[in-house]
Amino acid sequence: MELPRDPCPLCPGNEGDTPTILQLPSHGPWRVRVVPHFRPLYRIEGEPGRTAEGIYDRMSGLGAHEIVVDTTNHGNDLADESDEQIALVLEAYASRIADLKCDPRFKYVTVFKDRGANSGQEWPHAHSQVTATTFVPRRVLYELRAARDWFRERDRCVFCDILRQEEKQGKRVVDSQGGYIAFCPYASRVPFETWIFPRRHSHEFEKPGEDFRALGALFGRTIRRLRALSQGYHLVLHTAPNVLQTKGELSEYWQNLPGDYHWHIEIMPVVPTSEKSYILKEVYFNSLLPEQAAELLRQVDLG
Ligand SMILES: [Zn+2]
Ligand SMILES: [Zn+2]
Ligand SMILES: [Zn+2]
């Protein structure tokens, strides 16, 4: 099914026949809504398409692909929204991850967002995407492996170690709120790359107990800062893989997972100088030091 562009099917009042997977708040008019993706990434070639399985949108067992409608305001960027609205979006992410992880066929649930014309954003209405896959994305697998090895050697979470160092040094820290911190990573791949972490160790974003209000406030300020300095961004949420799925490449990772992995949000801004190196090779050339990037981000006037 092609997404019709006019009227915008992500706008309130135009829900039409798109099934609602989730809406927040759960009663009354929605403020965040999750629907099946109109052109899902995961489907078997030649198959007519998805089959509905309860509220799920399953691609012949290959995966799920959903759209999170970030706001009811067609013209608004998520950065224009209130902390409460951003908190609701985060709550929707957590709810979908937790729900999709109940299916042992899925090894990983990814939440991502492309914002801006040069980021690959598909429709003007602000949205995020959720995919559930029968494989673990390569970058996550690489992180899991590195985290496991670090933990084996030192009995500590590598991300907690990074956070302690960043907070102590302070020079790459952009902002913080409550139990959450935003900083430009030491080996930033692109200028203004920013990571958001919970200070307290937690391997699962979707586990109850996160303070989405505080995280939403920090997240909002971070994307407002980035808006002033970049053309858009790619965002990905990294949480632990599905522990119900232990086959294949994941079989050796489970022993220390709650201790060695630490969920986080990675934001890769779209900046003109980065595009060439980012597309051509897996080696990143970044001319802006993360310390300078953090300084510039901190200086953005948030009004
Ligand atoms: Zn719209
Ligand atoms: Zn940790
Ligand atoms: Zn990551």
List all distinct small molecules, including ions and cofactors, that are bound in this structure. Answer: zinc ion
The CATH class designation of the domain at 155-232 and 256-299 is Alpha Beta
The main sheet comes to:
10 strands, antiparallel
Overall pLDDT metric: 86
Overall radius of gyration? 19 Å
Describe this structure in words.
The chain has 303 residues and is α+β, with helices and mostly antiparallel strands. A hairpin with a 7-residue loop joins strand 1 and strand 2. The strands form 2 sheets. It has a 10-stranded antiparallel sheet with strand order 1-2-5-7-6-11-12-10-9-8, with helices on both faces. It is globular. It has a domain of 122 residues: HIT-like (HIT family, subunit A). Helices cover 28% and strands 20% of the residues. Bound molecules: zinc ion (ZN) (3 copies). One zinc ion binds next to loops.
Q: Secondary-structure map with pairings?
A:
Elements: E1 22-24, E2 32-36, E3 51-53, E4 56-58, E5 63-69, H1 83-100, E6 108-115, E7 127-133, H2 138-154, H3 158-169, E8 173-177, E9 180-183, E10 194-198, H4 212-229, E11 233-238, H5 257-260, E12 264-269, H6 275-280, H7 290-299
Antiparallel strand pairs: 1-2, 2-5, 3-4, 5-7, 6-7, 6-11, 8-9, 9-10, 10-12, 11-12
Helix pairs in contact: 1-4
The chain binds zinc ion (3 copies).
